[in-house]
Design a protein that fits this description.
Elements lengths: L1 H23 L5 H25 L3 H30 L5 H19 L8 E9 L2 E8 L1 H27 L4 H26 L5 H17 L6 H12 L3 E7 L4 E4 L1 H6 L15 H5 L3 E2 L5 E3 L2 E12 L2 E11 L1 H9 L4 H33 L6 H19 L6 H10 L12 H4 L7 H8 L1 H13 L5 H13 L20 H16 L10 H10 L10 H6 L1 H20 L1
Antiparallel strand pairs: 1-2, 3-4, 3-8, 5-6, 6-7, 7-8
Helix pairs in contact: 1-2, 1-7, 2-3, 2-7, 3-4, 3-5, 3-6, 5-6, 6-7, 13-14, 13-19, 14-18, 17-18, 18-19, 19-20
């Protein structure tokens, strides 16, 4: 029996170490950090069980028990963090601190149990089939520990049931059940041990949990997508050097360009301090206006504060390549005409970049929203068709620049969906009333997100139009829309135009929960809704564009069919 358990515990310990290695290879997002901590404590726990099976003295068994508790006191806490991260739920800070305090308190009690009777009122070393067993009479602290573990298990079950019910089908539902097994396998083995055997079976339950966790990460591919996206953006800035330090001036990381400009960063660890910006820059030459001259280029230095909950937690040293801009300034006096030509070209280039940024952000939403399938591209084209008709007519008096901006910012009308959780956004069917209320928040969230994304890369007029489209494109002429129930001319004209394009595309396009309507049906619905849903002053432009819109969607559908055949 002892040999069997020794082999079993050894295999379980090796599995835990292998799992820790595999998990450490993942990018350290919030979910991965929780799993790393969880696996680390399980490794400690496994070590304790391995020591317990190899001891022959009471003193050795006491040490083994302390090592077991050193890992066990935190296992369920980090399981909870991982589960909450998977479900997209933020644990309140006070609750987190209370749970950590309980775990730490239990750890102190366990480490000193041989000096008091809180954990065990009495204990002695015995054997069963050659296996050393610690016979114990439990104290009040152990009962509290078991009660807390029961609370954790109840929490896991409640979260699993809730998530399972909110995901009627698909991989997320299966993942939720697997994650529940991850949490309850150790508990099940503990119950089995207490009811059928005095031999510790928890290591085998933990081994099952770890194997399932690896399955979730490497097969089901549970990743911290937001963290990966941030890392990608951070590392892909080719013309900006970024160096991150915390509030105590300790180095926390940098991108490739920063390491190229400052080779010392390649040998700098996160335990070293960068006292000041000037210390890092050293003997770097500067021009008369304070711009840095490095590797034949000009960089503009900035220090941007990083804040969390209103407190400064660090800084980003931001060095932007402004070589081209500085060259333009230098040429102003002597080459005015050439400069004007260059500025025009650069402005067009910047506008192209801005539009690519706009389309890139829109594509992020498109890729997340599995139900719309090309909605952003098509609605943008429909807006362009309608705006061209308005511009040709001239009666509304919309400036050309205003019309151009509407077309350019139309792809951002659903940018707020980036803040809507996947379980709703990617739901393959109609929403429940509760889910629809959550989905409706994408309008206000879009208007909140856009300023932080566009303020530094576009003008205020463009930002205002983009925000109006994102926030108000679901308002109705009769005031029965959302989010603010605006009516009539109180709704910005750009949002009124967007509303027609948005609804028309939804009607004539196939969705996972409906078939596409015919052009005649869609035309009748839109025209009948003029004066209730839509601005009646835009009706004539929609009518003028009818044949062009139908021709556009016919071509788009043919193109989609050919792509599907390929």
């Amino acid at each position: 029996m002892k040999d069997f358990l020794l082999i079993g515990y050894s295999i379980a310990a090796l599995v835990s170490v292998l799992c820790l290695y595999l998990i450490l290879r993942q990018r350290p997002g919030d979910g991965q950090k929780a799993v790393q901590s969880l696996t680390s404590f399980i490794c400690v726990l496994m070590t304790g069980y391995w020591l317990s099976i190899n001891t022959t003295t009471l003193e050795g068994m006491v040490i083994a028990q302390k090592v077991i508790y050193a890992g066990g006191c935190y296992v369920y806490y980090y399981m909870l963090l991982f589960y909450l991260n998977f479900c997209g739920i933020k644990i309140p800070r006070l609750v987190s601190e209370m749970l950590q305090a309980f775990s730490f308190g239990m750890l102190l009690v366990a480490f000193t149990f041989d000096h008091h009777t809180l954990l065990y009122r009495s204990y002695s070393l015995t054997e069963m089939n050659g296996v050393p067993i610690l016979e114990k009479t439990y104290g009040i602290a152990h009962h509290a520990y078991i009660a807390m573990m029961a609370c954790y298990c109840i929490a896991f079950i409640v979260l699993a049931v809730r998530f399972y019910r909110n995901n009627q089908k698909g991989r997320r539902r299966t993942q939720s059940l697997i994650l529940l097994l991850v949490a309850l396998s150790p508990t099940g083995s503990y119950i089995l041990q207490k009811t059928a055997s005095k031999v510790d079976l928890v290591p085998f339950g933990l081994c099952i949990s770890l194997v399932l966790t690896i399955y979730l990460i490497y097969v089901e591919r549970i990743y911290d997508v937001t963290g990966l996206a941030k890392d990608y953006v951070f590392s892909s800035l080719d013309d900006t050097a970024l160096i991150v330090i915390d509030s105590d001036q300790y180095y926390k990381g940098s991108n490739d360009l920063a390491k190229k400009l400052f080779p010392v960063l390649n040998a700098t660890s996160i335990t070293e301090r960068l006292e000041t910006l000037s210390q890092l820059l050293g003997d770097v030459k500067t021009d008369e206006e304070g711009f840095l001259l490095m590797n034949g280029k000009v960089y503009e230095p900035k220090v941007k504060k990083v804040q969390n909950a209103g407190k400064t937690v660090g800084s980003v040293i931001w060095l932007t390549d402004v070589t081209v801009e500085r060259e333009h300034v230098r040429l102003v006096d002597n080459y005015q005409k050439k400069l004007e030509h260059d500025v025009k070209e650069k402005t067009e280039h910047i506008e192209q970049i801005q539009q690519k940024i706009v389309l890139g952000m829109a594509n992020i939403i498109e890729n997340r929203d599995a139900s719309t399938g090309g909605h952003i591209r098509r609605t943008s084209d429909v807006v362009s068709i309608l705006v061209d008709a308005i511009r040709r007519d001239g009666q509304l008096g919309l400036p050309d620049e205003f019309c151009t901006t509407i077309v350019r910012t139309a792809p951002l009308h659903d940018i707020g969906k980036i803040a809507v959780e996947d379980r709703i956004l990617r739901k393959p069917g109609k929403y429940t009333p509760e889910e629809f209320e959550i989905m409706k928040t994408h309008t206000t969230k879009g208007a909140q997100i856009l300023p932080s994304m566009l303020r530094d890369v576009t003008d205020e007029n463009t930002l205002r139009i983009a925000c109006n489209i994102a926030k108000y494109h679901h308002e109705k002429w009769n005031g029965k829309g959302y989010p603010e129930h605006l009516a009539g001319a109180d709704i910005p004209i750009e949002a009124r135009i967007m509303a027609i394009a948005d609804v028309y595309d939804a009607l004539v396009s196939e969705r996972c929960y409906k078939e596409a309507m015919s052009f005649d049906q869609a035309y009748d619905i839109i025209t009948e809704s003029m004066g209730s849903h839509f601005d009646p002053g835009l009706e004539k432009y929609f009518i003028q564009c009818r044949s062009e819109l139908e021709e556009y969607y016919t071509y788009a559908n043919q193109k989609q069919v050919k792509a599907a055949e390929v």
